[in-house]
TrEMBL record:
SUPFAM superfamilies: PLP-dependent transferases. Transmembrane segments: none annotated. GO terms for molecular function: transaminase activity. InterPro entries: Aromatic_deC, PyrdxlP-dep_de-COase, PyrdxlP-dep_Trfase, PyrdxlP-dep_Trfase_major, Pyridoxal-P_BS. It comes from Rhodocytophaga aerolata. This is Aminotransferase class V-fold PLP-dependent enzyme. Its cofactor is pyridoxal 5'-phosphate. Belongs to the group II decarboxylase family. The keyword Transcription does not apply.
Amino acid sequence: MNTILQSLMQEVTAIVSGNVAPHVGIPVTAAAVRQHLSQYTFKEPVPLEVVLEDVVQMMRTWNLQMTHPRYLGLFNPATTLASVVAETLVALYNPQLAAWSHAPAANEIERHTLHYVGTTLGFPAAQLAASFTSGGSEANLTAMLAAMASHFPHYLEKGLMQLGTQPVFYVSEYAHNSFDKICKNIGIGANAMRVIPADDQLKMDVSALQAQIAKDLANQCTPFMVVGTAGTTAAGIIDPLPELAELCKKQHIWFHVDAAWAGAIVFSEKLKPLLKGIELADSVTMDAHKWFSVSFGAGMFFCRHKAVISHMFSVRADYMPKSEQDISDPYTSTLQWTRRFMGLKLFMTLAESGESAFSRLLENQTSLGDYFRRQLLERGWKISNSTPLPVVCFTHRAIESREVSITGMLHQIYQEANLWISAVSTSQTQKVFRACITNYHTTEKDIDFVVRELEKLLQHQLAVKAN
Ligand SMILES: *Cc1c(COP(=O)(O)O)cnc(C)c1O
């Protein structure tokens, strides 16, 4: 057993200190991985140290390395050591959080952490209902259900058939696609989602939203929710939250803010003003497993209507242990029943770093984004989005004129596997590159490397074209 724990510790030390595989991730086919796995027939036992070594090898070679400082990718973090320690403890003790009385320490640690984050967001502690979720998608689903339950008083008892109206809700064209899935599956239908165009800053166009609401009301539809995104996945854009909040208040519509990634900046005095208006939301989604750099999965759902939430999830189950009065059991206040101790990694991460070190980290990544933009601009690249956050969308004249293709360049980047970026399209632009500074190990040197590589590949493609 000792050797197993030692090998595990070696790997933890290597990864957490940023000493990762030289490559960000080599492309592999499903057939190759399946061929390798076919040796596991589960007929005969294999010693754990052998399995461990093999799994480490597979993880290092056949996965994109989120922990690599030049993974400038989607919102997937390199995790903190505190996360790794926390996850180990969770697996070790395996506390069941469903009933408070089964896991008082774990439940109170989550409650303490959620109250800290929720009150930092600006929600009043007395009305706050908050829970950890599997991710942003579950938090958005919870928000949508809460908005329905709140807007249609008989919905929980009588269901959709008795509504007598078509419920509709509003997202910007850059909202996360989890809302497409949610509305298809909760019975209101995909057509219930009104996609509001963005303005030239890629923010939800409030006057277009107003016009659509008026049109829906005139057509006997019932608007019940507006979703503002704080940090769009494509371009890191923050919708005009104060204006959306005001409009929702006037129209009696639930205001949800999806701040899955950028919500973390409430912990930076410098960046927090960008989220102005979030404190007026009825509910908020945040993901600890994005910019807080804790491991998957840890989403968070915050709501200022405790009574709505307890009405939605209350059940009587005689086999469940009873808790003291005034303590709500998570199985009666969230979608999940068996509940994993998801919050420990955020608790330990925040406790270890402290607020000021954590905010410095966010600000440092934000400055790296600015540094990246400057380097690109100096070399004749063009920046396609306007955000203070470290999501950099960019292109080049040679790409716009179609002399060079983004797809071709990306193919080359993925083959060489020295860095990882992606591409997005916006309604305002053709396909552009997208890079997000998402790893706390990333430095200016990494950015310099990326810019040099991009230059090299661009020149190479231009040369190929010329020949
Ligand atoms: C990532 C993301 C989601 C989805 O969250 P998951 O944790 O992946 O389920 C939702 N909204 C936004 C804005 C996101 O960035």
